[in-house]
Here is the input.
Amino acid sequence: MIPPFVIPDELLAPPREVRARALARPFAAVLGASLLVLVVLRLAVCAALPTWAVAVLAPVTALGLVAAVFAAGVALGPLATDERGNVRPLARRHGFWVVALGVVTGLPMLGASSLVDPWETHYAEVAREMIERHDFVSPWWANEGWFMSKPVLVFWLESLSMVVLGVRTGPDQLLAGTAGAAAHPEWAVRLPALVLATLGAYVLYNGVSRTCGRRAGLAGAVVLLTMPGYALLSHQAITDMPLIASVAASLGFLLRALETRDEAQVSRWSVRIGSHLVTLHAGHAMALVLLACTLPQLAVLLSGHVHLDAAGLQVGADRLLAGSPHACTLPGQPACAKVALAHPRLPPLLQVACWMPLVLWLAGRLASETRAARLFAIAAWTAAAIGAMAKGPAALVIPAAAALVALGARRSLRPLLRLELLAGLATVLVLVAPWYLAVYARHGRMFIDELVLKHMLGRTLDHLHDTNGSDDVGIAYFVRQLGYATFPWSGIALVAALAAPSSDDGSRRGRARALLFGGTLLAFALVSSMGTKFHHYGLVVLPGAAMLAGSWLDERVSEAGSPTRGRARGAATAAAFVGAAMVVLLVARDLALAPSDGHVPSGAARFIHLMTYRYDRRWPGAETFAAVIGAAALVVASTCAALASRRWRPRAALALGASALLFSALLLDGYLPAASSDGGQRGVYEAYYRARGASTAPLVAYQLNWKGENFYTGNNVALFVTTGAPLRAYLDARKRAGESTVYFVTERGRVAGLRGELGAVRSFAEMTDRAASYEFSLVRAEL
Amino acid sequence: MVPVDSPTNAPGLLHRGRAGRLESAAALAAAVLGVALVVAWEVARPRLPAPFELGIAARAPGVPAWALRLPMAATALLGLGVFYTFLRRAADRGAAGYAVAVLATAPAWFVQGRTMTGAIVPMACSALVLAGLGIAVLDESATTRTKQLAFAAAAVAAAASVLASRWGMPNRGLVAVVAVPAIAVGAAGLLWKTPARGTAKAVLAVGLALGGVAAAATITGTGSWLGEVVLGSASIATKTTFEAPVAAIAYGLVPWTPIVPLALARRPSSAAHLALLIAAVLAVAVHAVLAPRTGSTTLVGVAAIAGAVALMLRSLESSTRPALGIACTVLVIGWLVAHDVKLAPERILIAFGATDAAIPAANATASSLAIRSSIWLFMVLSCVALVVPRAWLPAGRGLAIVAAGAFAGLVLRAHAYPELLSRLSPGAAFDAWAHSHRPGEPLGLVGVDLRSVAFAPGTAIAPQRDAPTAGRWLASAAHGVPEEPRRFLALAAGELPRVNAEYRGAHGKNVPVLGGSGSATLLATSSLLGSERSDNPLDAIVLGAAPRALRPIGAVLDDRLEALGWQLTDDDGHAIDAVPRGGKTVHVRVALAVKAALASGAYCTFLHVDHTPSRFSAEHRELPYPIALWRPGDVVIDDFTVKLPAHFRAGSYRMFWGVGLLPCEDDRRLGVTAGPTDGHDRIPGGTLEVR
Here is the structure.
């Protein structure tokens, strides 16, 4: 039975009233600031601004937008006072500093470097094809046809971002910037990851700050945002940040839901518009969020009935077209063809008709819900559902497991009622299921078999494929990767995580710790037990671990100022900090001192290994950072040792945070661009378009299948994954047509093979050096 | 509070006190007898030393293995006894008992205590140094004389750890054996502000000085004698990363593994507890630091870890709240460790601290189930003890967990590891030889350490250079004439295929195996007599004729290899007609007739089960009977273990088999020269039914 959720108005506190006119200026400021951010980012995309200018303007305008939103929140009411009813300016809001940290460390160089092959380019190419194919339901990736290994959210976000920021997605257009400069579509492709990372960190901060204190929340957010695993992932256009940020947000909302009293009501704000009084509350906001997440999906489904072709805009039955427009006739590319729908009796219109009542019922229910705990619970479900839309059920499993551990810590099942199981599951259903039903209607069982049974279930239960070679993939595997992903917080994060289960004291903080520990432990168990393992799978452990570390650090700082100085506690804390310092030094030994043997990369490449599966190739740009990592380790280890002293602890904690921030900035603005150049193809295509000029000399991808070749050329590329006779025939045809100049893109190690396969040619020249791309090379051949 | 008379002063209790002493003495005698029986049983098994024991065994040829293992057992017992004494003085009798229970049932300790690798010496010395310094610095009730004795014991242990290397024991260096306990005890004394702070400072200074020397030795070159003494003997350089101790703890300390990380992060309850925590963490750190130098070894500081676990469990006695967080952690870590052991049973070999080369991994499989069962047993019982109301456990949660762990550990100590050791020892092969040979019949050796024979006296040994030579030597003996002397060959299991190939080449059948099947060492013979039966594991793989009931294929690869047909069987070898859904494994056994040896090159075989858009594929990059050994006339079974993923729903799926070129990552394949092909040199084998 669903509990009643409508509280009579007379039982609620009177709403704060504000005139619409008073809101005009703040909301205009929000609009203006948003436009300013948009303009700066669009200029960044089309390379109308130099890199340094974007690096300054993007964060500044983004912070301006945050300030404008805050001012609007103050004017309307939600942000007028803090949780204790005190008026606090923006600069004294811890939450602002969390967002500011995300923006200032994350934005400056976000799109300034190449997408890293293969994952970033995989997803970016699928998103680009969605725009080009006008099909946002069936993902397509160039020569490999339907893309069936990930759910759809990341493609929707990236394609939306590309459209909004003005990326030109057509053939040979991706790098066409203004005034001959090469465009930077990377800004658009990576922006969703950064936005989600910042939002996830903020929501988790919010949950922790309300249960463990603002300083603990802020410390946790600083730890999270400066962990290399999280920071680098916020600059990677892959499916994992939507998953991890969603898990973080879900944990944050769960903390609020479980620690808010059952009877607590949300605040209400009345806006007087003329003679009308409109009363708003968080339930309305939640309903809006639900509609914002579902209605566009339903609109996408309906768009299946709208077709744009030579005859213009038409409305009719859904149709499915295979192939990449503009590339159907290129070698190696599938032909464009109409594909029969698997279930034509399940048209998009019928699907929307099925979903709409549920969506409207839920929205109505949320709009009338005024119990704060229930709304937080629905928000947790929503966040988890968004994660599931991006990567699969792990986003639901981890928060659910964390909630169970938290309930166990309370020794009560009563809070389950607060978690809105029915409405929550319905929310998950309307957010996640429409796309699955749509692809099922179009492609039938095959798509579900591939996506759900093979890539989700299969990867979890079986060893599908990975690139770990002879590495031990037992329990130590993710301990190792998390050691690198949490550096320089490795020691403190480890100590805090291990100390958490023994410190179950039943307090509010203890209950919060139980939930965070549950999330951390279950995430670790999930990824460690998976049959298929890649380094980045372990990063879903980070949100919980970071917040445990922040909370633990906060407690230790409080302990230093406490008048009751327990001998046991003091000694244990001192020993723990020294132990943490040792862990940092040990991890740093792997990162800074492990040499390269010429083939295997040196230790410094372990950070970029968290983001890609090319563990066996060199990353020389990244490897130059060994000294920086070593220096950071020494500073952090010294600071950890200083934390052992009660007297120095508060200042040492600040110094530790500052060191981590500096290191994170260096990582994002120095290390990642260098690594991107090593393992990305951008430099090669810049050189190609420069060299080709106005001519139409074609580009051939020679034994290459990383998808950077498809993305950066707008898929205007002849693909020869396997060469031999087909390639010879193609080149002969070019020659007969009098087109003797052909450009080739290939891995550097295959250039010699290409030369041998071309045989006698008039000229053969490598056009790019290792500075443009260490891994890839551009060759110009005169046939 | 009502004052209670001391038992010794209470009237009428004098007689009871004497009786109590008698009872104690009887109990002690029973305990000593029990321990002696256990030790006697353990050191006698296996009868012959395992390969990794030969380093020490060879120093005393002819001395029975049990006699050489006895000092190791005594060292382990000494370590246990002294460590018990330390904890009884510094904490309480209960904690001391728990520590002994943990240590005695942790494979990393008891395996070394019953084998003659010598690794128990630095481990026990480390425990002795920790205990000696701990009593001298942290035991406030110790008299000056006791402290002096404790210091002396620590000094003797430190010296023994260095000198023992002269008798072939591994040298793990003063840093691990002395500096870690010294720093731990000194730092604990200072942090806890114990009365003997002056002594604590001195002890800490010694530890730090040794650490400094170690750092200097590392910088100046670890090959120097100073490096040897301080850092320990260098092994073959290995590529290790910071988490190297994780595997040593995870698989070497079962069933206690899930408790260890929690114990190391526990808040200390006394100076001794703090010392144990610091010692345990430092031991783990030193293991990680030295791992690139020392390679795969056991943790020296196991005793400190066991002490930390014991004190944590002791502290749980007073816990009235169910410890759900700890229970969850135990469940997760225990499950992950059991899962790891199931997937790769060779992980448990880490308790031996020896390299993989010395211990063939396949032998670990037999003990895997017992070890996993032990982990599960501990996990479930511990979780119950942690979450049930305190009133249900009158003796406390800690004791319940210790009892669970001790019981699970005894399963390991009494069953799983002895079974593993018996497989690693060449005893079964030598016993079979002892039963089968007649006087004067020679025993060849290949892949088996010559020193093993010292434990099988009276043997006429004919060492062989390599497996092909050994195979030819065996095959050249008179064959089929009962009166003629036979030849025997003790061989490492890994050498069997090459020996077998030579023997098949001469006689057209597999080499007879008389003993040791399933062990690391086998006994092969030139011919069988009377009722003898061969137990050659290759009999199921290399045949003289095609098996019956094949589903025919009839394709020829490169005019050299004919795919005769295939069978579908379950795990027990019974023929089945369809693959059951639900993730069950089946076997697709492809029978191949060799027409001519394959041209030189590296090959793999593959099996594809087609499915749109992605197929199931399995490759054999290494076969149990390598392709290079296939000879004309051989019928070889290529056995694929198939576990179809969940997206293979009920239906019929086309199956293809073929031979590819290594690394088997592209479409380069051996050409199909006759019979059916799919046009890409894959041989269609018909359909595989999934139901």
